[in-house]
Amino acid sequence: MAVTESLIKTGGSIIKFNKHFIEHFLEIKRRNSEYTSISYERDIKDFFNVEVITEITLDDIINVNIFHVEAYMLDLHNQGKSSATINRKISALSSLYKWLLKYQDNRTGVSIIKYNPFGSLKDEKPKVNNKETEFLTLEESKRLIESIDDRTILGMRNKAILSLAITTALRKSEIINIKFKDIKKIHGYDVIEVIRKGNKKDIVKIQANVLNLITTYINNTNRSFENNENDYLFIGHSRNGKNKKKLDPSTLNYMIKKCCERAGINKKIKVHSTRHTAITLAITSGASIEKVRDFAAHKNIATTNRYVHSIDKLKDNAGDLIDLFD
Length: 326
Hints:
Blueprint: E1 6-10, E2 13-17, H1 21-32, H2 34-48, H3 58-62, H4 66-78, H5 83-101, H6 138-147, H7 153-168, H8 172-176, E3 183-186, E4 189-195, E5 201-205, H9 208-219, H10 249-262, H11 271-284, H12 289-296, H13 301-315
């Protein structure tokens, strides 16, 4: 059967897709997040042990039961995978089965599947250690930026990325997907147009010094806003096959790790850590919770409140009133 066409037989009925049914599922996910779609595809292929998604048939889907799922989770555990990784993989597979469960034929009452073997694993799923994300103090942030050697193209790029991340609280996908045309001036302010969670457009203000770093990086890569408007801003500068291509999340996290090591910062800092840093620094500098919510693009102010509560818990700690050393 052609890759671009998929037929599913269910109790005598035939459902025809213009592409493989899992490709269709991934396309739906891609509308909200390209990275979710990529992650789901990788996890689905891993479970079914295939090279391409179109090798998976409906019979493969139907034949999976709880014993297969438990064996898979045990295998992941034995491979040393983290609890978060295992839960993410199970969540991806469960999402596929939930989507297939939605199909009901009004004429025949036929369903594609009747059971989600990944959907009732509360006791089996490993507990995730929800330790707080590490973040940088203002002094550490300054030291990190100052330690980057910006005499090289790589240094210029890394300094621009980290300065942007720490002053805007942008997420990983938001940084990676910036194109030249997204940087513009609105009402006299320099901004970047970004796509937030849920595929929502937003604008983020850029500090003048950060824009200068970005402009310096652009000029030294022989690109311009006029000639490269549809190109990605931050690209690879190495010989690993990704030169001049859009950065991927692992490259971004690896870069931050190496920059922190060179700056003598002994913390596990990733892109989410720079976002956490930006939000925390905004709060400690006196920004209102409403301003911080907009700055962080939190959908719910309760999310912002968690940052405030975490800081207040340290700043106004009840234990400070206990004086054992008069």
